[in-house]
Amino acid sequence: MNKMPVIEIKNVSKSFKEIEAVKNLTLTIYEGEYVALLGPNGAGKTTLIEMIEGLQKPDAGTIRILGMNWKEHEQKLHQKIGLSLQETKFIDKITTKETFDLFGSFYGLRPARTEEILELVNLTEKRKDYTNQLSGGQRQRLAIGIALLNNPKVLLLDEPTTGLDPGARREVWKILEKLQRDFKTTMILTTHYMEEAEVLCERILIMDKGEFIAAGTLPELNARHGEGDLIEVTFDRNFDIGASDLPGVKRLNWVTAHTKAEIFVDNIAEVLPSIIESTRRGNIRITALTSRKMTLDDLFISLTGRHLTEA
Question: pLDDT grade, residue 152 (50/70/90)?
Answer without folding.
Answer: very high
